[in-house]
Every structure is written in C-alpha cells, then in structure tokens.
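I hope you will forgive my troubling you with a question about protein structure. Could you please explain, in whatever detail you think fit, how the structure tokens follow from the sequence? Thank you for your consideration; the sequence and its tokens are set out here.
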Amino acid sequence: MATYDFDLFVIGAGSGGVRASRWAARYGAKVAVADDDRLGGTCVNRGCIPKKLYAYASHFHEDFEDAVGFGWDKAAPKFDWSRLVAAKEKEITRLNGIYAKLLDGSGVARIDGRVTVEGPHEVKVSGKAYTARTILVATGGHPHRPEIPGAELGIVSDDAFDLPKLPKRIVILGGGYIALEFAGIFAGLGVETTLVYRQTLPLRGFDEDVRKHVAAEIAKKGIAVRAGVNLTKLERKGSGMLAHTTANDTIEADIVMFATGREPNTKGLGLEKAGVKLGKNGEVVVDEYSRSSVESIYAIGDVTDRIALTPVALHEAMCMAETLFNNNPTKVDHADVAAAVFSQPTVSVVGLTEEEARKRVGRVDIYRTSFKPLKHTLSGRDERTMMKMVVDAASGRVLGCHMVGEDAAEIIQGMAIAVKMGATKADFDRTIGIHPTAAEEFVTLRDKMPDPVPKAAE
C-alpha cells in the first residue's frame, strides 16, 4: 500500500476548507491545509462578515431619522469612514486568529503559499512537493470583471472595503445580490449611488414578486436605478471617471464598481494536468459526493459553482469528511437551501419560487401580503414588507417562503426548518403567532391569490 505525507491535503483555507480539515482530523486523518492568503477565505475577509458589518453601519442614518417619530430629538452624527474600516479590520484579525486556533487545536498542519496540483496524489507549495491520499480543492472564487474598454479603472467587491476614502459618487454595475447590497451600503453612508443593471428587474432567479417589490423599495432609498442598461466603456475625467452606457449617455462618478458575478478560482492550479474535468466557467465538475473526475481529488464550495454560499460549503465539507474518514457515505443535499440578500430592505427566501413550483408540481396556491411595518407607523418612513408563501395545491405542502423587509433573514431561517421538514399550509395555520411581529404574518395568511389568467394564444 502506498504511503503518503498526508491522508488529506486541502487547498484553500476558507470556511469550507477549514471545516473539512478539522473534521477529517477529528476522525483520525493526517491533514494539511494550504493557502497564500489570510485564513477564512472570501466570507471572513472580503465577503459575508465585512459586508454585513458595513450594512449595519449604513443603516444607522435611517435609525437616527426614524427616532424622531418616537420622541427623540433630531440628530445628525458625523460618519467617519476610516474608523469603520479600522473596526472591520480589527474584527477580521480576531476571526483569523480563531481560525488558526481551531486548526492548530485539531492537529492540522498549516502551510503558507501558492499551491499547484502536480498529479492525483501530489501538490507543490512554493516549490516544495507533498503527497496525499486525497486532495481537496476549496479555493473559492473571485469577482468577475467585464471585458469593456477601461475596465481596469473600475473596482470589484474585493476592493470596496478598504477604499482610502469614501467617494462622493459611485456607479455600481450589476443586478445581483452583491450589487444590491453595496448599493444599499454606499447610499446609506451618504454616497450618491447609481445602480445599473441589464435586466428589467434585479435579482434574476428570485421569485418575480420579490424582484418587483425590492426594486420598488430600493428606489425609495435615494438610489438612482438604471434598469435595462449596461456599461460600454469607462474613461478618466479629471479625478473621477465617466461611465458610458448602452442608452447612449454617460454617468459621472468618482468610482465605478463591477458586481457582475463571480468565477471559480481554478486558473493556474494545474487541475487539468492532473486530469480533473472543468466546466465551461472553469468550475470543478463533481458528483453528489463532491468527487471530481479523478478519484482522489474532491472539490467543495464556490470552486464547484453549485450554490455559492458559506453554509453550503460547510455542509459539503461535512459530507466529504463523513464519506472519506468516518465510513459514512453522505451525499450533498442542495434542496431547500435558505438564502438572504442583505440589501435595504433585506431579501430572504427558502424553497421554490412561484415559477419553479408551477413547472414542478403544476397547480399551486399562492398567499401574499404587503404591509407597512408597525415601526413605520410612527417613523413615517415609506417602506413596506412583502411576504409570500408557495403551496402545492394537491398536497398542501409549503414549497417556498419569500420575504422582503426588516429582519427577513432572521425570520426565514425559522421558515426554512418548516419547509425542509415538509410542513403543510395546515401546519402553519394551526401555529399561533407571536404578536405584534412581522413573522406572525406567515402563520396568519388565509386568503389565496387568484390564479393567473392564462395568456391568450397568439
């Protein structure tokens, strides 16, 4: 039997890679994890964590305004961008330390450096070779930069957290979750924000009612929305820049940010040389156990371009560790994964959209409500919450829950348990709500929406 330096060699110390390393080591494997960046990957360093911290910061201006309706004197505190950046950096450094302690405490060898795959059982880190029975690719992804003239003048999400100063004007290209989140952040911090996206509505792939509602709400936040438009060129103009659009006009800005999707980090890894099959976007093609086309090489997380969410990468990591090192073959389960967009207001969903449900089961019952939250009856803010439930008409099973509004992510996390368990509309109906909350609306929905009128045959 061949002997190897390690039972498992993990490439990438993001959330998925760290989880896989720790659990494989817990099950008795000899494990190494290598990365040429800080521990924690995109989520900790350039994604989920700093992004939500900045979203909190940006929302305070509305909180100060809303307080007046509750008897507080009007206040307009001064915002200091450099203090936010420093506070964010301090928290990320703390999290990096926690990841290091977790790995060290699990007996995982940490190796710093750029990794290349040399074969089914061999990698090199900064020129030094290591062998492993199994190699796990967990290298994540990076922001896409569109191929337009002057694209090098723009920034991407990786750059947005550490700008030397807060711009006065920003143009954000994209209609996905990253674009909406940063539009809310910059607008909330007082930046003149223009959001440009090619579709007629943002958040392609989400439920149509969610897309319509969030589009209406973000327009109330002072964000200038240019729907159905794309950028064609960037050029310098003084200390700022000029963004040319497909509408044959230009938008002046200090910064243009591209939020046009993400791509798997496989370039230069040497995976093709090792025989690993890659997809059309450069993703590692894997089976339901996260195994690639090479039996000894696995891949999890964003690099596989399945569902690019940190909790999904953690789940995939656990399944891999169980399968390989705990004698418990465990398939990855990507059904009914809840998600949130920390736009302002927040979007959160679990399960099927109405469109998906109609294709899958045929007849569905739709329950939807839109209302002004209790808080804004006194604040006077023009913001409405929307909730929607998609139900299989034949079985009564709840197939999807969708929400746009404050605390949506916190509420949908609970709904996700019910949807995953196969709860029915009757189960929701017999659940007594907590009053007064927005969440209780999900258990008090009674009036079905009328079925859509079939489109006349052309």
